[in-house]
Amino acid sequence: MSIFRSLFICSVLCAVAACAAPSAGTFPAPDTRLTVPLVRQKGAGSSWVRFLPKTTSTATYTYNGFAIGPDHNVWFQDVQGNGVARLTETGGLKEYTVPHTEGYSGIAVGADDRFYVGAYDSSTFQGYVDAMTQSGTTTAYPIGTSSNTDNLSGGVAEGPDGNVWFVEYHHVAKITTTGTITQYPYPNSSYYANPGDIVRGSDGNMWLTLGGGGVNPAYVVKVAPSDGTMTSYDLTALVGCAFDNALAEGPDGNVWVDCGTSIVRVTPAGVATAFATPSNAAAGEVSGDITPGAAQTIWYGGAASSGKLVQYDIAAKAFHVFTPPAHLLTQPRVTLMGPDGNQWFSAVDPSSNAMAIAVYVLEPLRVSPTQLTLSGPGATGTLTVSESGVSKFTAKSSNVGVATVAPSGSGSFMITAVSAGTCNVTISDQSQNSVLVKVTVN
What we know:
single chain, 2 helices, Methylamine Dehydrogenase, Chain H, five-stranded antiparallel sheet, Immunoglobulin-like, mainly beta
C-alpha cells in the first residue's frame, strides 16, 4: 500500500490497557483459520502487546509498508536497513536484504506471491522495482531512465488486472509479473509534488493521492487499469484538504483519505465528504496510517501529532480513541488489521527511541472476577472467561487442599472451597496467555 509504513518484532511485552474504552465500537472479525489472538499477552487481560525488533536498523520510522503475506505472517520494510522482514504473530523475525537503496514505497503482494517494493541506485538515481520471493530471492526491474523523476517515490498496490501499480513523481505505472513496466504521465505539472499512496478500489480502478502541502492542490486520482486514463478530484477545493497522503479502500466500498485534521470519504463517483478528527486525535498524514478494519471501521495512527490509535465507526459516524501506555509505546503510525483480527501498528519505544511493532488486542483474555473469596469449605464460586475467537480454556489450582476447579459450562469454571487458606487459580488459553485469580477461603 505505501510510503511511511512501520512495524515491529521480537521480545513480547504487555501492559494493562490504559485506553479510552470504545463507547460502541465494532471490531474486525477474526480470521477463523487461526487461533486468535496468537500474540502472547503475557499476564493477559491486556490490550497492548509490544515487539522490540532486532532488525538491521531500528532508527525512528525505518519500519514501513505492512502487508499480510501468502504465509499469513506480517511483512514490512526496514527502509534504513534496506531490508524486507517477516514477523510471525508470536514475534519470530527473519529479514532479507534488497539489492538497492530502499524507498518508503510500502509493500505490494503480487499475483505471483512475490513482495514488490520501490528502490533506487543512490549514485545514479535510477529507480527500480524490487520483487522478492518469500525465501528472499530478489529480482530488480529498472524504471524508465536514469532520473530521479522515474523513481518509485510513492506507494505500491496490486491491481485488478494482476499487475502491481506504483506512484512516481511524474507518472503512475504498472509492472507485470514478468517485469514489463508501463508508465502513464500525469496530465499536468500541478500533480508532481508529493507522490502519495495507491490502492485498488471496489470499482475496479486504481486510486492514488498526489500533491498538497501548500505547493499544489491535494488530489485524489482515479486511474483506469485498462489504459491509464485518469480522473482527478481536487480535495483542497472540495473539502479543504491541505495535504493528503495515506489512502485506503474502506469496507463500505469507498476510498478513505487521511487529511490530518479530517478523514475524507470519496465515493467511486468522486463525491467527497470530510469527517473532522477529534481535537486530541488528529491523523498522522503518513502513507499507511489509514487502513480498513472489518465491520465497517477505519483505523489510523496519530503519530507524533496525537500519539493515539484511532478507530472510526463508519455506520455510527463515531471516533473511538485508544491511548497506548506511555511507558510502552509512543507515536503509533502505520496500521494494519493482522491475520489474527487484531490491529497491528508501528510505534516508538520511549525508553530507547528505537522502533517497535505493537498490537492492539481487541478482545484479550479476560477473567471475572479477578479475586474470589469463599465463605468456608463447601462454598462455591464461578469464574467467567472470555476471549475473541477462542472457546477452549484450561484451569489449574495451585493448592487443591484449599480449593479445586472444574469446568462448569462454556467459558466458565466452578471453584469449590476445601479448607481455609489461599491459593491461586490459573486460567489459560491455547496461545500461552494466562490470568491468575487469587482465591481465599475463610
